[in-house]
Design brief:
eight-stranded parallel β-sheet; 39% helix; 10 strands; two-stranded antiparallel ribbon; 10% strand; 13 helices; 359 residues; TIM Barrel
């Protein structure tokens, strides 16, 4: 059962025998797909069907399909505008229609959860700080993020796609990229409550899951980043905000964590902090180490996590029927709506130094 607390990546476009044997043994609760896993729509659907066959119940099958430069299926289909482009150019109706098509896009592929929408406020839009969020935020203030990310979330969920808001409590203040190192943001909980936590406090009741941030807030917890901090996860997310859904770590293979904590220790600390699932995107060969580390966590903690996971799994939808015609039609609708919103613009946000756009 402890494998349910793991969210794992896959190496290629099909399962290897070694991966299949490992996944059958530890029975992870979820899988995440990246560009490396995608060659064609039919291939992705076979891969997701194969993943479902490995576990005793339906796993979460997730992807980062936000739009813009973070759209893992860009090699096989149309790409929506980024969150920033949607916020700047789209009407509420267009935002809603795009979310409808995103949900269908993923469900045809057999994907049942989107790691989005981004709930971070872009505090560095003018300066262009290299914090991995360029173009990915719905606004520079709480109200814009709440309105536009909230609409996106509601329409994806109305189409039975599970959603995961990110990155709690905030990556928007970071001036460096957690893919490379651990950002430090020297603000208080009161500062966060005045603006950054507003989208979370308002939208978390509508979210299936949230993703926790690899950012240290020394005024709140001087010792641990938010991802691994009981003060922020159990203390703020659970006790103050009252979130009942699943808390998923951001990728534990990112430099912010892997450069400071060893595999096993990171997973143990994450679950002890109040996260329900540890996300390991790239070093999947370390999944057994992660699984063994979970045995060291108090059963009262793991039982709470397993209970929250079980409740959310009841909402996993059956995948839509896959046909080339339905896939092509939905992609045409995404492309048409993209053109309607931003014309022939390919990408208004220049490539960054963040690997988030390359995964």
């Amino acid at each position: 059962m402890l494998g349910q607390l793991l969210f794992l990546g896959i190496k290629g476009t099909e399962l290897t025998l070694e991966e299949a044997e490992l996944f059958k043994k530890i029975k992870p609760g979820g899988f995440i797909l990246f560009t490396r896993n995608i060659a064609s729509a039919a291939q992705v659907r076979k891969l997701t069907d194969d993943l479902r066959s490995l576990t005793y119940d339906d796993p979460f099958i997730a992807i980062d399909n936000e739009g813009g430069r973070v759209w893992r299926t860009q090699t096989i289909g149309a790409t929506p505008p980024s969150a920033e482009q949607m916020a700047d150019h789209a009407t509420p109706a267009q935002i809603g229609f795009m979310a409808d098509h995103i949900a269908k896009h993923l469900q045809i592929l057999g994907i049942n959860m989107n790691f989005g929408p981004v709930l971070d406020i872009d505090h560095h839009k003018a300066s262009g700080a290299q914090n991995a969020l360029r173009g990915r935020c719905y606004g520079t203030n709480a109200n814009d993020v709440l309105d536009k990310a909230g609409l996106t979330n509601r329409r994806m969920r109305a189409n039975k796609l599970l959603t995961c808001g990110k990155h709690f409590p905030s990556c928007g203040h970071a001036k460096s990229d957690p893919h490379h190192d651990l950002p430090i943001v020297d603000i208080s909980l009161s500062d966060l409550q005045r603006e950054d936590l507003i989208p979370y406090m308002s939208l978390l009741p509508e979210m299936n899951a949230i993703m926790t941030a690899h950012v240290t807030f020394p005024q709140i917890d001087p010792d641990l980043p938010a991802t691994l901090s009981p003060k922020l996860i159990d203390g703020v997310l659970r006790d103050i905000i009252g979130f009942k859904g699943i808390a998923v770590t951001d990728d534990l293979d990112m430099g912010a964590i892997v450069n400071n904590y060893g595999r096993g220790t990171d997973v143990k600390l994450a679950i002890q902090a109040g996260n329900d699932m540890a996300l390991i995107c790239h070093q999947t060969e370390s999944a057994q180490i992660a699984y063994d580390a979970l045995k060291e966590v108090d059963t009262e903690i793991t039982d709470r996590a397993l209970n929250r996971i079980h409740k959310q799994k009841k909402h996993i939808p059956s995948p839509l029927e896959f046909t080339n015609a339905s896939w092509d039609q939905n992609n045409e609708q995404i492309q048409s709506l993209r053109t309607e919103i931003i014309g022939d613009i390919e990408e208004t946000n220049a490539p960054t130094q963040s690997p988030v756009e390359d995964y």
